Amino acid sequence: MTRLAFLNGLVLALETIRSHKMRAFLTVLGVIIGTGTIIGVSAILTGFDASMTSVLRSFGPNSIIVFKFPVGFRVGNLSPEERTRKNLTYENALHLRERCKNVDDVSAMLFRSNGMVNAKYMGNDMYDVNLIGVEEGYSRGSGQVDIHLGRFFTDEESRRRAPVVVIGADIEKGLFANLDPIGKTITVSGHEFLVIGSMLRPAASFFGDTDNRILLPYGTMQKMYPNARENAIVVTAMNGKLPQALDEVRTVLRIDRRVPYDKPDNFALSTAEQMVSDFHQITAMTFLVMVVLSSIGLLVGGIGVMNIMLVSVTERTFEIGIRKAIGAKKLDILIQFLIEAAALTGLGGIIGIIFGWVIAVIARTVFPSLPAAVPLWAAITGIVVSVGVGLFFGIWPANKAARLDPVVALRYE
Question: Does 319 share its domain with 221?
Fold first, then answer.
């Protein structure tokens, strides 16, 4: 088929669609919904992926998070073995600091395992705050501390179990409004602490959009909350020495925790890149499920296109007879109807892309922290798939039209 013949066929197809606008719209409604859903989900997942990747990588390329089970995203629940693992201890952190040659910094983190924590200053209250006991090294290696006012506490203050805290941006705003928090005393679950510093909100954080952290020295946390047993350890490897540091940390912890040589680790080492990889697996599975579900809409739309094209063949039998009588070949008729089917679903795909883009805009408006955007590959894929649906489901009607006997077609009324 020549380019001119193709263009003529495309113009004829568009004129046919324009003359039956409502019928064409209802025919490709399934294609619109299916394509729009895929585009919308792609936009949201792309934004969510970018946001969470930023969160995970905010801990730095040299950071290792040591915990009793994997930190981050995973498919499925914890195994029975993981649920019964012993907590890490402060001694584990000390041994890592002493024995690992490729490690720059080690900071133990102690969490309060149960109960809601509230903070109060004069008449202002903040509820469900994140109370964490950390060491001075946490401010250097975690990527989560950017001092706004005052300073961070020292290891000496931790050893003396000084009642001092560094507060997050939302704690500062909620308790002190426009006041300078430095030197003020706040009450946290009945204990009084002196505020010596406040932090800026991190660009990305494991603790969500709100920065309701209250950091206190590790020793102080042990003194104030003697029942706290949940430890994590942040290890910072030397530049370019992350693989060696991982091996050293694993070896020291296996010795500390008396893991037999033929048994797997009873702890987990998580790096930023590993958590990013785990998260990508989850988003890929989610996207695959959404594609399968959206394909139902494309299937319904394709069947509708096939039905309407069969009706079109019946309505235009006389026209087909005339075209064949003046020399049109079977291939010409076949391609003509395939072009019409592809044009119909292609327009449906374009409307679906616009629909998906609207979903992305709404998601970005409702959730400003979610940078939802329609990726170029998703838009191109949407057009290609929708046109492919038209070509596939248009084969039978097009073949039926091409095989009509011109004599019988000219006698059709």
Answer: no
